Amino acid sequence: MGMDLTTAAAPARPGAADEPPAVELRGLTKTFRRAGQPPVQAVRGIDLTVPQGQVVALLGPNGAGKTTTLDVVLGLTEPTGGSARVLGQRPRAAVDAGRVSAVLQSGGLLRDLSVRETVQVIASTFERPRPVDEVIEQAGLSDLAGRKVGKCSGGEQQRLRFALALLPDPDLLVLDEPTAGMDVAARRAFWATMHADADAGRTVIFATHYLEEADAFAERIVMVAGAGSSPTAPPSRSAPARAAARSRPTCRETRPMSYAGCGRSTTSPTCRCRATG
């Protein structure tokens, strides 16, 4: 499994030039090794700079290396080669300082606690957390505050993870497949909140394998694909998506490609990004 990136710049918010990038990856590689098995290169030679204040999508099929890249940004794994800086610091230091939060795909919730109790417990672990009611409201959970986590749907639990991620008021929010399990209305509300956060100065980086989601909600798309892809024809884009687009890249589809190496194999259309006006 390999990883190649083609990026297109999007305008950074005013003042961002005077600040360190939210994320800076240089020659980043990650190889997994197991005894008796050939090494698996999950990430290969990534160079990526994300200014503060952008909403950036990592787009690619399952197994392309998106989650591994985010794990490096979050300090959950060390790169095999290259370097990673987050807000001018080592990733783990930025996380420990409360400047980075994440919404992951699963885990981290106790089924027997209510939504409010869960937020209260996690808030108690931070020195200066945001008010519990404030993050519950921002995540759209006010009507569900008394419900047990085990009684919440998958989308509601994902919104709870979002509320927990907001508690330290981070500068960078990292999301791995954040809208999994959400219906269309919840997905739209979720991304409206994300853009409000970004407009206030928060950087949002999210991984997805849905072209429509990346195209509709990201200011900038970074394509995560296997080696050997070749562009063919541009995909169709709906009028609402075109109207909502800012100065961000669109994508041209390439031939279907197979990805393997992490225990899963998928075949999915991929694309190579190009800048548009």
What global shape is seen? globular
The count of strands amounts to: 13
The CATH homologous superfamily of the domain at 4-99 and 193-274 is termed P-loop containing nucleotide triphosphate hydrolases
Structural class: alpha/beta
Q: Classify the fold: give the CATH topology of the domain at 4-99 and 193-274.
A: Rossmann fold
Taking all Cα atoms into account, the compactness measure Rg is 19 Å
Distance between the termini: 33 Å
- pLDDT under 50 segments (min length 5)? 1-9, 227-277
Strand order of the largest sheet: 1-9-4-8-7-6
* Tally of helical runs: 8
Account of the protein in words:
There is one protein chain. Helices cover 26% and strands 25% of the residues. With 277 residues, it is α/β, with parallel strands linked by helices. The chain has a domain of 178 residues: P-loop containing nucleotide triphosphate hydrolases (Rossmann fold), CATH 3.40.50.300. The two termini are 33 Å apart. This is ABC transporter domain-containing protein. InterPro entries: AAA+_ATPase, ABC_transporter-like_ATP-bd, ABC_transporter-like_CS, ABC_transporter_ATP-binding, P-loop_NTPase.
Which secondary structure elements does this structure contain, and how are they paired or packed?
Elements: E1 4-6, E2 23-32, E3 40-50, E4 55-59, H1 66-73, E5 81-86, H2 91-96, E6 100-103, H3 115-123, H4 132-138, H5 154-166, E7 172-176, H6 184-199, E8 203-208, H7 211-217, E9 220-225, H8 239-244, E10 250-253, E11 257-259, E12 266-268, E13 271-274
Parallel strand pairs: 4-8, 4-9, 6-7, 7-8
Antiparallel strand pairs: 1-9, 2-3, 2-5, 10-13, 11-12
